[in-house]
Amino acid sequence: MFDIRAKAIHSFGSAPRNFLSYQPQGRLVLSAGFGNLAGGIDVWEVSTRKKVAEFTASNSSHCEWSPCGRYIMTATLSPRLRVDNGVKIWWCGGQLLHVQNTDDLYAASFRPGRVEDTPPFPAVVPKAPEANASISLYKPKGGDSNGAASKPVGAYRPPGARGMGASDAYRRDDDAPSSGASTPTFKGGKPAARYIPGAAIPGAAAVPGAAAGGEKKKRQRTKNKKADVDGATEAVAKASIDEKPKAAAAPANDEDATAKKIRNLTKKLKAIDELKARVAKGEVLEKTQVQKIETEGSVRAEIRALGGDA
């Protein structure tokens, strides 16, 4: 907690909390942990910094104070959660007073009211009124009267993992340090040694089996490299073998190309002869057609050079 000059005046300690809300009258402050946390709620008195109440509203996705500052509402809403939708009304001292379940609930809120129109909040947290009859339907036999421990809370497990032995992956421990065992220690403001995320922590005890696993991966990498080299050698050898038939077939391909070129030149000569026949009949040709007739000598010379008859 800080004053208006941003000077720290009090610490409420460390806890899995991600939500904070002041009472409209400013006498109390609520801290809670919702979402992926267990739903723990603490109520503190601002002036004395003492904890007034502590309770659990599991699976809650909404929380707010009533305008009079005496009631706290928690709700489980869709689409954040599509099961156990409903509203719970708590006394500011932590007692559960009312439960109302609904199939699909999308919003919940107290009726708006001005703080000035509500009775002043007493200096001491008043005694809780009698709980509604709905509590007896909600509370299991032998449960706590304030509803704080009415339902056991556990981490969500997918349908495929239900009915099986739980592993550490599904264990929920909000109070455990988040990363104390996986981060390096610091001395004098500097890392004790170079730390690489995901690698072993400098100075930490070796994990059994970790060295063996590393050697296994190293051997696999060596094996893969050898397989790649052998594959490349085989591909080169195969390419060399394939090039020999291609070299033998090269002369035949050259002969086919020469014959094809002679055929094309012969077609040009035939077209030139047709143009000359049109000139003999007195027909006037276009400029490009006249130029084509002029190339007759070069076409015949090229055919003779290729070994053809012109």
UniProtKB/TrEMBL annotation:
It comes from the Eukaryota. GO terms for cellular component: cytosolic small ribosomal subunit. Pfam families: eIF2A (PF08662). Residues 1-107 form the Translation initiation factor beta propellor-like domain. One of its GO terms (biological process) is regulation of translation. Residues 138-190, 210-256 are annotated as: Disordered. The keyword S-adenosyl-L-methionine does not apply. GO terms for molecular function: mRNA binding; ribosome binding; translation initiation factor activity; tRNA binding. InterPro entries: TIF2A (IPR011387), TIF_beta_prop-like (IPR013979), WD40/YVTN_repeat-like_dom_sf (IPR015943). Keywords: Initiation factor, Protein biosynthesis, Repeat, Translation regulation, WD repeat. Belongs to the WD repeat EIF2A family. This is Eukaryotic translation initiation factor 2A. It comes from Trichosporon asahii var. asahii (strain CBS 8904). The lineage of its organism: Eukaryota, Fungi, Dikarya, Basidiomycota, Agaricomycotina.
